[in-house]
């Protein structure tokens, strides 16, 4: 079931669908096989404004609301999960800048995106630490009035070698005890002291190119710091929670794309003359039907949450983002597994896109938090102190 | 996540919630234990107009749209599944009359409901036959110009002994071969020839009182036939599909009510001073959280389908009704099972309502079609002939 | 797949099967409906020696090994879960006495069983405490040289009103700090100070009659204490772990009995002329087949563990008991749920035994520890310190 | 839980474990990465006699019974699924020859294996046809007294380019109607007319090198035909059913190997200094514990069936093979998925073996029949005509 979109939103969706099917789709296999950046696909999306979905219209962006934005990401993921994931990460950084950046920062960075097609990475993960767990060991230390230095180590630095800037999640060294010290800085990826190392050879999401990085005494000025140091107000803005909603949309999109390819192949989805999944037998119908029910329910939740997103309070958004990611992850895993099982050995051959969809879903769903932790978060939300209304019920 | 309701719809929901909590809730246990009709609860709902949710305003009814109607049923089910199920069945008959009845029929039957609080049963099931499978052996035979006679046997005759009228699903004997012969007649339950027999002692949904009936040469006049004999146009009206949506809402409601009682007891939900489910341990949080994610996704699908219901074509409504019933059934079973498992032996004692919720969900989800068949229906919808757009994708 | 039994073991199994089918089966429904003790069934089993399966031959018992014992319990559970559960609990107490009782205790108590058919309950549960969690608040306090007094409160006192003796799980008040203080005492159930109270009206396992009890200053002599106070050596004997194996066998047995009744009815299993589950459609075959695969795998584990039981060390037995209970619980729940779903509404009527099997499995599987905790125990067993061989791998 | 093995069987297992850990393990990654034949591993196994496990002692083979054979295959799969799968397929052909071959065939082919380390492939799959479905379109046609010709097309020709001989599953063209026409022939893989084509680039099991083959007018003599044409007696021998048991053992082995590596790394399993799966948190313990319970139950069934294999009748073996494959497939999928989820993104990197275990299990479980079909087979076995004892119950 499609979400309820206004005509204007539908036009945006139709446009990105056109680009996805005619341009992005045919490149997806080689991006995966060679583990290369989807550079041409980024360019095509940039030309149509889709690197600026999170940038206010005043700065030349599309300024898409949550529902339209998520359907755009889902649509891209139907044909190329790597393009969808990298564009989503980039878009989240632009939304952070829009939410807490200074005028100067906005002018500078948004122009880089809109005019020059520059990309922004968001590098959070560290050994044992993730953007959902917090507690980063990468440290920002003040040197003098306007000068800082950052040290640390980051895992899974997506778009390494292609993003022009990286938003680094770090801890401010000089914060008084028991004071939030989390902060975000934007650094050019060619900064002296920033060094990409390690290889990138994973199961799936191979075009996200996410090796490790060392940050050794990298200089930072005040103008590179987003928001006020230690001001956790950003958690009240609901931007961070949109990360999870996007991951949910990407999982749903990969599964939808695989389903469409397997059942209703067409020139648009690169399909073979005959559907790979032949749905004549009742047990096959029932087996894939179970997955579709899960997928449609998960997507309905995602769209409903996106529709109500902007008027919901931050705690509720966190819960919704968690539920959407959990539900879409489960449904996408079920769907891609069932497709393989019902088609059999041929579905595992790399000449067809189902094998890639399967690997991409399995890998994308490993982004933290894991399922068990998401369920824990949701369970925790159920019980409140007497007199306090649960955010869920 | 609550569905998006207009202020007017919210007022309706608030009113039924008030009645449910202050009047219906405290009777639910005895209705179940003694397997008796929820007569006082029907009366309370009737007085507030809730036996007329499917009756047009022109005839004194509430004429609720699908979304509001389903949230009303869900709300009642939170406290008394038996009341919700019987009211839903009654309401579906009134919607059938509204859709295909003559002016005379509407005037007569709607007045009986609005003024006198009369109830309508819908008796479809036969040995090996159900309202979703069709092919009834109960037969309507023409005697002369305006006179018919009906013979047959019905299972699961809900509200037997309390409904004043029953809509009987039958086959017209004189139809030419290969012609649809399905028809619906409305008969007073005290008609000579109609005889209730058999006992009613089931696992759950015990207050729906659904024994078997024999119909032996029961006389029927033209005025008792709904619509034109064999006119399957009713399947284009989407009324029948709303049956499944209501069952979905009832399952979701029972599970929601159980969850609320177990986690956040209050005087309103009849709860104990201390929550029966103590959610301090992470594995308990994660275990119930998994069920909540499933339940919220299923409800989101239900609400999204209900919102788009009236502009959707009949085939799509059938698919949506199937998906909603499948998804809400699974989620409600998971939720009530997890509550029992996490609370332990005490949850199985009849002094608390969780045991009843568990039995009611397990029994309500046995209403046809079964899960495997619903999944089959959904799977079948995926594949269309080349050039034909699937109703789902 | 049946376990591999020697001819002697097969004869024992054939005998209990004969008694179960010809005598126990026909009483099972009323025991459940009325929530009464299975007194006649106990008598029949006693006459054939089956109340003495855990009593050494030297004392007139059958002294069955673990595998034969568990198949006996499983066989009884196929026709009457209540009889199986109470006999299992009684048998576990006799095994405790055999393991740690004095000669005097053995002579006295075993004679009561063998000659007089007396029954022993095992009362452990307290609010928030269970035999698997430990930490009982029921307290044994020394009065003088040979005199003690016990105080406390017990939940789920199985066979209350029918067992002649109860083994009480309690804590010795005078134990030095950090010393194990757990102890077991055997008291006549008509002891002054022991008072059964509360009602017993649960979902299933209704013939186990397990209300609450208050123990107020109940006098105890040295001869009533089993083993040495605080001697946890009993945990090295593997008797307590056999509790869980028996629960596993009971769940498997109920599910097997239900499956047999539904698919292959016969006069022996009280079946109807036509199978309630008609297995003509592939999706029905596949749906029940999935449950059967789970059930057969769980039973294979149970039998394999039982076969190797006596030479395994206590830690391994604990792991096996946990795995067997977890696996058989899941499989029995899946099997009884699938039977209901595939048969439909008729399966929920109390005139057929499937509804009872469903309730009994759901209730029996609520005995602690819950699934999530069992999985935790198994997961914990996987990782050992470097150089230490895991008990599993 | 390990199966119960005699000392002699244990010695065989210890020997293959030694070879696996010291020789096979370190080659597994490159075999997968490059999709190359495990030639050196075959040679090591051959030198120790493990290419002759299915060859009678009279011909110089090990003549292992089913239980020992399956534990050998499982042990190899713990370190290299590709070696295990190819050796299993080869061994099945030698068992077919032992069961229905002539003396001349045995002398010739067994000597090739024992003395020269030659390998045998088994090529059954065709578009839409598999060894479990039958109905091959590859056709054997008689030319004259001792001369035949074979035509056809085969998919998934495992060990193409490395096996010296291939057993081809085909249909005898001259069979009278309604007569079984299935037959097996052994042809040298360098026969004129046999042409390997197509590529081999799959998700997992990449070292099995299974491209397609065309067989165009390939000459065959009487001596190359195994057994009597159309003599379906081979289905009474239980050899074919052992195929499924071996696939089950391979899935279980891969999962066991992955579990050991992740939780208890050691130099033997190539493990890292610190376990990749840190099992400190209860929800992680519970999550992996659930998989372990499934895996241990599935393995218990496999061992129990293997132990009773030789005295079971063919229909029972077919059922057991189906149940074992279904249960071990499910458990291995659950285990490898949980390992990835609980470890997170690092588990998806190719520098660790878990990613490969995951792909190998997902691919191996696509070998026919699929899960839904296996469940259907098991469900079908439950119901027999009155008076006929079900092979299961």
List descriptors.
homotetramer; 393 residues; alpha+beta; eight-stranded mixed β-sheet; 8 strands; 47% helix
Explain this structure.
4 copies of one chain form a homotetramer. In chain A, a hairpin with a 2-residue loop joins strand 2 and strand 3 (147-154). The first copy, chain A, has 11 helices and 8 strands. Chain A is globular. In chain A, helix 5 (81-100) packs antiparallel against helix 7 and helix 7 (239-263) packs antiparallel against helix 8 (282-308). Chain A is α+β, with helices and mostly antiparallel strands and 393 residues long.
Please describe the topology of this protein.
The structure is a homotetramer of 393-residue chains.
Chain A lengths: L6 H18 L3 H7 L4 H9 L18 H14 L1 H20 L2 H14 L3 E4 L15 E6 L2 E8 L10 E8 L9 E7 L5 E4 L14 E10 L3 E2 L12 H25 L18 H27 L5 H30 L10 H11 L6 H10 L13
Parallel strand pairs in A: 1-4, 2-4
Antiparallel strand pairs in A: 2-3, 3-7, 4-5, 5-8, 6-7
Helix pairs in contact in A: 1-3, 1-4, 4-5, 4-7, 5-7, 7-8, 7-9, 7-10, 8-9, 9-10, 9-11
Biggest chain contact: A-B, 52 and 52 residues
- Estimate the global geometry of chain A from the Cα principal axes: globular
Question: How many runs of DSSP E, i.e. beta strands of chain A?
Answer: 8
- Determine Rg of chain A (CA atoms, Å): 21 Å
The helix fraction of chain A, in percent, is: 40-55%
Average pLDDT of chain A: 93
* Low-pLDDT runs of chain A: none
Estimated share of beta-strand residues of chain A: 5-15%
Structure class of chain A: alpha+beta
- In terms of quaternary structure, the protein is homotetramer
